[in-house]
Amino acid sequence: MLRKADTNFGFAIAAALIFFFIGGTLTTIVPPLVDKTWAKPFENSDPAKGPVGQLKPYTDVELKGRAIYVREGCWYCHTQQTRTLLADTKRSGWKGVDSPISTPDEFVYDSPHMFGTKRTGPDLSRVGGKYDTQWHRTHFRNPRDLVPGSIMPPFPWLVANQEEFTAVVAYLQTLGRAKHWRPDNDYEK
Amino acid sequence: MPEEISNTVKSGPAGIAGSWPEHEDTTAKWFLISSIAYFFIVGIIAVTIAAKFVWPSLLGTVQYLTYGRLRPLHVNGMLFGWLLAADMGLTYYLVPRLCGVKLWSEKLGVATAALWNVIVLGAVVCLLMGWNQGLEYAELPLPLDVLVVVAWIMFGANIFMTIASRKYDQMYVSIWYIMGTILWTAFVYLTGNFAVLFATGTNQANLNWMYVHNAVGLIFTPVGLALAYYFIPKASNTPLYSHKLSMIGFWSLAFVYVWTGAHHMLHGPISQWLQTIAIAFSLMLLIPVWAVVYNFFATMKGQWHQLKDNVPLKFLMSGVVFYLLTCFQGPMHSLRSVNAIVSKTDWIPGHAHMAVLGAFSFFAIAGTYFMIPRVFRTRLFSESLGNWSFWFLMLGGLGFFTTLWLGGFWQGWQWNNPAIPFIDTVIALKPVWIVRFFSGILMFLGIVSFAYNIMATIIGAKDNPETAAA
């Protein structure tokens, strides 16, 4: 039947588009209609169902920090997803407690999404609240001062700009905090 | 393959009979020349970011030259400045010849080439300034996206009008692939650059990866195969082995490729059933790939000796082998067990470079080596420099691919042992990145010798006329 596409211009075009649209529609438009958790912000108050907590929209300062994170291309080397792999939950964990896996409902307010494809540096999906502002200041100025062997580039212009530095740290402190899972002994308490 | 097309592909229409059109090829020339210039310039960026893995503070105090800004410039520059522009230039060359007519409008074509250069130069400014949309392969800000759409419509209209006015009834397989590229790209690009802006979180990521995956699968793959289907029979002066196999390859590609975007999020925050669909269709990708590759190998049966001193054919057939390998890796990465090791590691750039450099850039380089002497009616400046460019790219490429695979696999094993601190997995990779940097230098030497050879051919064309048929 497809032999007709050898000689018939219109038929070739129509067939190529139909073949493409079957998969295209079923994998892009249909999934969010079927799986409602993609669009519903995380909220849980029942400890029996897993970590409790609520996803809050970003504040203006956090959004500004997020824009800097996008601008500087942090996302080319840092993923933001604790995958369904045991090692990921341990690496995202803190003080001996494993992190919960990342779920779509934790990212509803993210645009652009920052899931990432390459993990040159550690995953940041649960980094919020783990390191204080002074740590971040020193680390941005020269990562190797705090982490010998790191290959992260220095970001002196971020540290020099108080407004931008405050914003980007505010954003980093939000990461992964919709779910309450960490022990109560980090720096803020 | 019907006789007339067979002859077209085998020996070229021009000069055989009196009624053949005289091709101007102005558009093809401009696209090719500018794309080769970007290949060279972006090659410098590529070596620079490879160096940053070895010396992380290199250029570290210059905001505009930090890794996070040069990396998207490298990716976008190579994909859109070099590869897609070269593919478009070669399309402007081969479509009129396969149709036996002149290009519909050279004026429109030259305008498209000019607009494309505006887009690429705009992209350089935007990406260095950090005006980045934050979506992979879709980094360019909205105004440039709109210009890309305009340029694509200009390109598509020109090519479709040429095909519609063709002299032969039968459309050769390269023509289907080019039509497919133009149509699918339109929708894939709109999804990845416009529809994504209306979604957030996982939904947006799903659209983003549909685009990222199909930028390779439904843009660079079909146009690359269109080149291979044209230039392999041409460069070897051998008819294509099987028309039926090429049909199986094309229509299965059209159906299967678009389903697989979610395999970029295996184990991630996206529905399990969608991951499973993506895995199943990723495995089916073996069908179009093996059909195409078998066809090319069978075409070469009894002709392999030609590889000895045929520079375009060397690039073409090595490209086919890299295509086979990269498209074997792809489905294998989609298996959950393999993905748990290689995903997000340095294996992935090894894989991606084999597709975009090893397969599709090799096809475009072969096409350029074949086309430039013909459209400028001269001989290649130096066959031996052509050989050098092949071996530089081949050895540099192999060094790059294999060290990143080994390193990435090792890195993945280390990540899966949480007793190893993350920073130790970074330090462990340092020797790998040193080898990658030196492989990158070899690849860059290949680019330089290729670009110099083509430039010298063009500049020397007037003094070195060759009356052979174009």
Describe this structure in words.
Chain A has 189 residues and is mainly alpha-helical. Chain A has two domains: 31 residues; 116 residues, Cytochrome c-like domain (Cytochrome Bc1 Complex, Chain D, domain 2, Orthogonal Bundle). Chain A is built from nine helices and two strands; from the N terminus they run αααββαααααα. In chain A, α4 packs across α9. Chain B has 470 residues and is an all-alpha fold. Chain B has a single domain, classed as Cytochrome C Oxidase, Chain A. In chain B, α2 packs parallel to α4 and α8 runs antiparallel to α10.
Q: CATH H level of chain B: which superfamily?
A: Cytochrome c oxidase-like, subunit I domain
Query: Whole-number radius of gyration of chain A?
Result: 22 Å
The top level CATH class name of chain B: Mainly Alpha
* Derived structural class of chain A: mainly alpha
Q: Determine the number of helices of chain B (DSSP H or I, runs of at least 4 residues).
A: 16
- Unreliable stretches of chain A (pLDDT < 50, length at least 5) are none
Residue fraction in strands of chain A: under 5%
Morphology call of chain A = globular
Largest sheet of chain B: none
